[in-house]
Specification:
Blueprint: H1 15-30, E1 43-48, H2 54-65, E2 69-73, H3 87-97, E3 100-105, H4 110-117, E4 122-127, H5 133-147, H6 155-159, E5 163-167, H7 174-183, E6 190-194, H8 203-211, E7 216-219, H9 222-225, E8 231-234, H10 245-251, H11 259-262, E9 270-272, H12 293-311
Helix pairs in contact: 1-5, 1-12, 2-12, 3-4, 5-7, 5-12
């Protein structure tokens, strides 16, 4: 069903196809020997023009656990891009060696451009402040695993009626853009966008929610929103997206989640974060049973194993 398909943004796959990926990921989680040799002889090119730890390592771990191999670069300074090679030529070159390409690039739209030049599937690992679809798959699987009924086959059953809060850098946060876009496809989800005015969610996201008549609330008051939430998605203020250092310094500590703030939260709240964090979640929160961001990172490996097995046609 997904063999040979690229993933540029969450809407590329139908809800039924997403359920197939999540169910396979859960099967792999339950039995890590499943598909252990499924990608034997397959090569994954990892092209990271921007720093990454979790995404790059989880893709490499996923491919290796499937029995495949990886090649690529984690520093654009070690690629021919520094010599002036175009993205199109880099993609053509990588596609001649590999069976699939994972790419992160600081320019919005770079992944879509790459997919147009590549004869093999391209997976977007983040394009500027635009989308990060495999982080979204990770987030959705985490919600399904922690909020869903055991044995539920459809994500829709797990997210219906959820109140999801996004807090921090909503303007540049591609993980927020992707996840809100994905969750908006399911009925009954209400959004809370918590940010300073300068980092509000982009207008195109708000317009889309209005168009689909999806309920949302924009606020700068963290304490006011907290008791309402079933899921809290924290994000860091991203220094690399700012042109003015003074603006970054002024905004970077706008919201800090600590034990005191959690006193107002539901006991079954799920706290998510795409990581890395800086200081927006106090270390003391790590011990709270509601903190799920390290579990979330591990689910990322399972969902990427499922995605790779699917697009490479081994299932």
């Amino acid at each position: 069903m997904l063999k040979g398909r690229s993933l540029i943004e969450p809407g590329n796959f139908s809800l039924e196809e997403l359920d197939t990926i999540f169910n396979l990921a859960e099967k792999i989680e339950e039995d890590e020997t499943y598909l252990r040799e499924g990608c034997r002889g397959k090569l994954l090119a990892t092209l990271f023009f921007e720093p990454s730890t979790r995404t790059r390592l989880s893709f490499e771990a996923a491919m290796l656990r499937l029995g495949g191999s990886t090649l690529g670069f984690a520093d654009p300074g070690s690629s021919s891009a520094v010599k002036g090679e175009s993205l199109a030529d880099t993609i053509r070159m990588a596609a001649s060696y590999a069976d699939a390409i994972v790419m992160r690039n600081p320019k919005e739209g770079a992944a879509l451009l790459a997919s147009r030049y590549s004869p093999v599937p391209v997976i977007n690992a983040g394009d500027g402040g635009h989308h990060h679809p495999t982080q979204t798959l990770t987030d959705l699987l985490t919600i399904k695993r922690l909020r869903g009924k055991p044995g539920a086959k459809m994500l829709a059953e797990s997210v219906k009626g959820l109140r999801v809060g996004f807090c921090g850098d909503l303007k540049f946060g591609r993980t927020v853009h992707s996840l809100s876009h994905a969750l908006a496809r399911y009925s009954g989800v209400k959004f809370f966008f918590i940010s300073p005015d300068e980092l509000r969610a982009p207008e195109y996201i708000i317009r889309a929610l209005d168009r689909e008549k999806i309920e949302y609330n924009e606020t700068g008051n963290f304490d006011e929103a907290m008791p309402e939430l079933d899921v809290l998605y924290m994000t860091r203020v991203q220094r690399e997206r700012f042109f003015n250092e003074e603006d970054y310094i002024r905004l970077k500590d706008s919201y800090i989640l600590d034990r005191e703030k959690l006193e107002k939260a539901k006991q079954n709240l799920i706290i998510l974060h795409p990581l890395p964090r800086v200081n927006e979640i106090a270390v003391e929160v790590d011990k709270d049973p509601r903190a799920a961001y390290f579990k979330q990172a591990k689910y990322g490996m399972y969902v990427r194993m499922s995605l790779l097995a699917s697009i490479l046609g081994v299932v």
